[in-house]
Automatic annotation (TrEMBL):
The keyword NAD does not apply. InterPro entries: DUF892_YciF-like, Ferritin-like, Ferritin-like_SF, YciF. Keywords: Coiled coil. SUPFAM superfamilies: Ferritin-like. The keyword Coiled coil applies. This is Ferritin-like metal-binding protein YciE. Residues 46-73 form a coiled coil. Pfam families: DUF892.
Amino acid sequence: MGLFTQDIKTMDDLFLHGLQDIYYAEQQITKALPKMIDKATNRDLIAGLKAHLEETNKQIERLDKVFLKLEQQPSGTQCPAIDGLIKEADELTGEIADEAVLDAAIVAGAQAVEHYEICRYGTLIAWAEKLGHDEVVRFLTTNLNEEKAANTKLNTIALRKGVNTKASNAA
């Protein structure tokens, strides 16, 4: 399925395309998170990113199960949105010398990705319910809940664990 090729004719086609989109996104995130972990200096941020990398791998396993239940081969389709979010975060963090400011930028980049995933999973759940794919809603909802929790943890790291405070005090 490509952009403007009109391969999407039905709501089921649209749903499958959405699954392929998030599948690709999760794959790209597993490649981006180790780089973010290597750049981060705040121990809570590092621990949170490592935990989310493990979660992301489990989310991919759940998506594999979704494809199986739908009798489809697990596959991704390029997602310019996630590619752009990852590229932007990578370029921004490459421009920052101060470690405290860098940690704040990593949190912001990670949250942008989480918000994208929350949006995608919410839509996929609504579509799955409408299409009667009740057998996959549970898997998608688990992934959605993990994404929401990851976003909350990032907020906590930024606001309560001092990342934003240290960044704002950087010279």
